[in-house]
Amino acid sequence: MEETIGVTSAAQIPKQRGEALQDTAVRYAEERHWDVFPGAWLESFEGTWRCSCGEVACPAPGAHPVRDDWPTQATGSATVARRVWAKQPNASILLPTGRTFDAIDVPETAGFLALARMERMELTLGPVTCTPDRRMQFFVLPGASAKVPDLVRKLGWPPAALDLVTLGEGAYVAAPPTRFGASGAVQWANRPTPANRWLPDAEEVISPLSYACGREARRK
What we know:
single chain; alpha+beta; five-stranded antiparallel beta sheet; disordered N terminus; DNA primase; DNA_primase/pol_bifunc_N
C-alpha cells in the first residue's frame, strides 16, 4: 500500500484504492492522534494523469489542499475522517504541521545521510517521510519552526545557506500512501511505530541534519 511503484509514463500509475486511503487516514487519527484532512487527487485525462484541481501546471498534482480553509477542515476524529473519505475516497491524505508535530524538510540525499548518522549516534527518531520529488520530512515536536534558525546558527551555518525548511503552523505534509503526480507515492523512510510515538525535539536531530545539508550545499 505504501510502496513506491516504478512507472515509465504517467498513464501507468495504478489507481488509488479508496478503501486503503480511508482506512489509513482513520488509522492516523485513531492510532497516532494526528489531525488529517483530504486533499486533491489524480484523475485520468486523455491517457494521462492530472490533478483534480484542473491546473495543467499544478506544482503538487494530487497532493495539495483543495480548500483555503483547510486548517479548520483538519480533524483528529477517526469517525469524522471515515465519513470524509467515504464522500471522496480518492482524496490524498494531508497532515497539518504545528499541531501534534512539526516537520523538518530536507533534500532526499541529505536526509538519508542524516538518517545513517542518527542511527550511528543511536538517536531516537520519529516518523520520516520520503516524497517522489526527492524530499524528506523528519517529524519532531511542535515548536521546531521557532527554534531551528537559532540552532542552525549556533552550529555555524547561516540558515539561508542550507536547504533545510521547518514546517510548522499553517503548513502541512502529504502522508503515505498519497500519490504525487506521475512520480509515485509518498513513502515512510521511518515508519510510525509504538517505539517512536514520542517524538524527538528539534535540538536532538538538528546537528546531523545541518551537517548533511551543509555537505549537500558544498557539492553544488
